[in-house]
Each structure stands twice: as C-alpha cells, then as structure tokens.
Amino acid sequence: MAKSWEISSFTSHDISEKKISERGGEMATNIGIMDAAYFVGRSEILSWINSTLQLNLSKVEEACSGAVHCQLLDATHPGMVPMHKVNFDAKSEYEMIQNYKVLQDVFNKLKITKHIEVSKLVKGRPLDNLEFMQWMKRYCDSVNSGQHNYNPLERREVCKGGRETSKKSANSQASNKGSTAQRPQSSHNARRNEVSSANPTNQAAKVSRAPPAGGGPVYEEKITELKLSIDSLEKERDFYFAKLRDIEILCQTPEIEHSPIVAAIQKILYATDDDGTAVTEAQAMISVGRKEIEGLSPIAEVSEEKSSLETHKRKNIANIDFEAAGLATLSPRQRLSDVSDVHCSESPLMTC
Q1: Helix axes 298-329, 277-296, angle to 10 degrees
Q2: Are 327 and 319 in contact (CB under 8 A)?
Q3: Which of 93, 167, 171, 331 shows the greatest Cβ crowding within 10 Å of its Cβ?
Q4: Name one GO biological process term (predicted).
Q5: Contact 29, 115 (CB under 8 A)
Q6: What distances in angstroms separate CA 3 from CA 12, 15, 16, 130, 139, one per listed residue?
Q7: Does 231 score more than 60 pLDDT?
Q8: 85-94 — which CB contacts under 8 Å span 24+ positions?
C-alpha cells in the first residue's frame, strides 16, 4: 500500500507540473506585441517589482542582471527556479549571462517560447529592459495574480548576494522613511524663516526655489522619456548606418570599383554638405561616363562592325534565296539557255 501511495503521489505531482508548464506556455504565446502590457508605465512596473520582492529599485534597468527576473518567476511558480544558482551580486556580463541561463532553463521547463535578448538586456538599456519587464508583469499577473503567499527575503537568502541585497533595500527604505518624516519639520522651519525675514529679495528667491523641489518627480519622468527617445533614435541610427556600410563595401568590389555609377554613389555617400549639390554632381558624372564609353570604347566599335557584317551577310543570303526561288519557277529549256549564257559570258575562249 505504501508503494502504491508513493507512485500515485509522484504521478499526481508530475501531472500538476505538466499542467503548470502547459498553462505557462499558453499564457506566454497569448501575449502579443500590441498587448496592453507594453503600455504599462515605468512607475507601475517599479512598484510591482518592489512590492513583490521587497526591493527598492529606482530604475527598471537596475534589474538588468537577470536575478530579479528569476525571482519574479520563482514567485509565480514556487519551486520551479533553482534560486541557489541565482546571483544577485552579478556585476560583469558573464555573471549576468549565467542568471539568464537559469531563466532560460525555467522557460524551457514551462514551455515558454519568449525570446530573451540577453545581449541587449545586460547592457542596461532602459527601453529593452522596460519592454522585457512589461512582458514579465503581464505573464506573472496572468498566471497567479498574487494568490499564494511568497516570502522573497527567505528565498533570497540562498542566492549569492541575496542577503546583502535585502539589507541594502531595507536600509534605503528606512532612509526614505526618515526623509519623509523630516519634510514637515523642514518646511515649518522654512516658513518661520520666511516670516522672520524682512528682505523681500530673499523671500522672492525662496519662493522661486520652491517649485523645483515640488516638481522633482515630474522632471524625473521627463528625463526618463528623453532617455527612451534617445535610445530609440540610437537604434534607428545604427540600423541605417549598417545599411550605408553595406553599400560602401559593395562599391569596393574590384569588378565595379572604377565604374561611373559606383563613383557617383560614393560621391553621395561621402558628401559633407546638405545643399543637394551631391546628387546633381553624381548625375553629371554618370552622363559624362556614358559619353566617354560611347565615344572611346573599342568594344562598342567592334560590336558595330560585327553588326554591319552580319546585316551584309543577311542581305547576300536573302538575294541568293531570291534567285534560287526565281530559278525554281523557270522551265527546263529556260534554265539550259541561262546556263549556256553564263558559260559564254564567263569564258573568253568560248563563242556562242
């Protein structure tokens, strides 16, 4: 009976893991590129990470090491992630790649076909890390919706650097609480100083300094938006630069390197002025090259001689065919008379 119970429990455990993996794969495939998940803001993503894992991240790209992704997946599928292999103290790209290998292994177990662009994520670019974290939030919310209890501090104890990460987040949270507690007192002191001050210029200066302090989060959001736009512009720049580089390499092919068309293309590629003269100069180069080829190329002359010879041969062949057709229509007596006339005319020794 004991053996049969063990077999049945093992089988049910396997079945539950299989169901979880199938469900995870289905959830992952249902998240398209135009899903609402990719329109979630950075502040919402950060609050979700910090509340789920009890961290204090201020930027999404701080999770570029991959350790946060592993623990988020561990919170979604408890026991599926080998947390002892996760390194929260990863600084180099090699250490970060090891974390992403752990994440990819869990993806394979759950039959998740989401592609992880490790080479972009480890560089800490804001846009790439934001997009991947938006996908992670959508997936984790669709699987469990936070229905089970999860202790992130306890799970992070077995990770390399996990204990230090928990201490840093706790200290930062304590410092933030202290700063918020000191804000009312500092504002009260500032008001008292403003009332006691008799110089209106000092009061105007203090009033002018007040709006930037209150508009700090707004400025941070603007800075974040500018960083994202710069990142997208850099991607677009690299894309078109790679295309221009391919054209340049093609123009350096020995077979076509000295042709007028290639010279015109290089004229446009290496132009430093934006006045539009490069295109007109390139068109002039192509037209001059055509005239030189038509006037000086021996190949063109030989081709013309060949074409004239061929037309002359065709005319001769046509005349012969015409004469043969005329002879075919004559009677036998007329043919004999014509042959005799020919022999008489060709030979000076024969008389007719």
Answers
A1: 50
A2: no
A3: 93
A4: cell division
A5: no
A6: 14, 18, 20, 50, 38
A7: yes
A8: 86/159, 86/160, 86/162, 87/159, 87/160, 87/161, 88/156, 88/159, 88/160, 88/161, 88/162, 88/164, 88/165, 89/160, 89/161, 89/164, 89/165, 90/65, 90/66, 90/161, 91/65, 93/122
Distance (Å, rounded) from C-alpha 44 to C-alpha 226? Answer: 19
Q: And the tokens for 86?
A: 């996760």
Highest mean pLDDT among 9-23, 77-91, 194-208, 333-347: 77-91
Contact between 21 and 111 under an 8 Å Cβ cutoff? The reply is yes
Query: 87: which DSSP letter?
Result: B
Strand partners, 87: 160
Confirm if 71 and 155 have CB atoms less than 8 A apart.
yes
Mean pLDDT value of segment 159-164: 89
> Domain 2-168 adopts which CATH fold?
Actin-binding Protein, T-fimbrin; domain 1 (1.10.418)
Q: Domain limits of the chain?
A: 2-168, 298-346
| pLDDT for 44 | 92
Cα distances from 339 to residues 319, 320, 322, 335, 344, in angstroms, run 19, 16, 17, 6, 9
**3 state SS of 160:** strand
Within 10 A of 131 (CB to CB), how many other CB atoms are there? 18
